[in-house]
Prior knowledge:
The chain is of the alpha+beta class. The protein has helices spanning 3-27, 101-143, 149-162, 166-187, and strands at 40-46, 48-61, 63-64, 67-70, 76-81, 88-89, 94-98, 189-191, 196-201, 208-209, 216-219, 223-230, 243-247, 255-263, 274-281, 292-309, 314-316, 319-328, 331-344, 348-353, 360-364, 374-378. The two termini are 76 Å apart. Helix 2 packs antiparallel against helix 4 (166-187). Strand 18 (319-328) and strand 19 (331-344) form a beta hairpin.
Amino acid sequence: MTNKKRVNILQWVTVILVGSLLLISGCSPQMPTSVAESAITVNVETAESRDIYGSISYNGRLKASREVQVLPQTSARIISINVSEGQEVGTGQTLMTLDSSSLQASLKRAEAQVASAKANQVNNQIKLEAAGKSYERTKSLYDAEATTQVELENAKDAYDLLNSGSVEAAVAEAEAALLAVQEQIGYTSVTAPVSGSIGRIDASVGDYVNTSNTVAVISDPQELKIEIMVGESDISIMKLNAKVDVYVKSVNPDSLSGTISSIASVLAANSSMYPVTITLDNVDGEAKSGMYAEVSIAASGVQSALCIPLSSIIPDNGVNVVYSVTEMNGEMRAARVEVKTGINDGDYVQILSGLKAGDKVVTLGNTLISDGSLLTIQSKEGEQS
Length: 385
């Protein structure tokens, strides 16, 4: 086959292949070139000037300002508990009763010893009177030179022995022993040392308790306190009698009014912190001793500061980021903006740089978007725009 014929055949093959491709292309449906972008619904707020006051937060647990631990004054087994937790009690009211059976036997022995000592005292008194008369007679005889010096001295010794006071001392000792047993029996009735509310009962019927066991806690729930530990950088902010906000979120989302009642002037033992005590009224009894509380103390303030909601801030690799809203070709788009922040009050944060008054920032849904995301803005009333 000549070269000319070979070239012609190749040209015809090329034409056929190109035609086939064009035919296939013309018969196939056209593929979409892009997918429609979905908009993300977000909430936005406007950066604006407002007065803002920063705060420092501390955590701790509430405790009754006046709280007393009840300890028995004798060792015995509990046979009854007469109160329940939360019950109001008065000073001297019986809280629980201890077994006094062993002490009752001691009481009978002590009573018998007192009776015996007193009987001996009566007998001694009779002898003393007789010895006194004998001594007087002997003395008269001695003065009349009718008896000897020895007999006079013997009569006096007999009288002095009976009049030594040893019998009276034995009676006093027996009575003291009886009083001690009676006192121990009295201790088997465990009473309230102060008035207040039974905050906790730490024992059960049948338990054997001693003088080192706390069996109950009595507190005055109308005034609670919380102790916080403050570092040296913040201790100067603490002012005696200053009002602070205390949040007990387990019972109320709103703050309770507290007062700084004491500020330690020395560090706590084995610590680099200063104990500060805050007291708060709890007249309605809503908060309970032992509940977790957060104390918020004003630290500083700025007037007419540019602020945005704290919820719009997203920490990102050591910087604070917000997403502002910009309009591009009639569409709302997110724009990533790094901002420098100042103080915050828990709801709003001061913006030192990165935004200007009137800028709109995403407050809800900002974790679902990125730079350039298409947005649908939802108003506070729930309408979309």
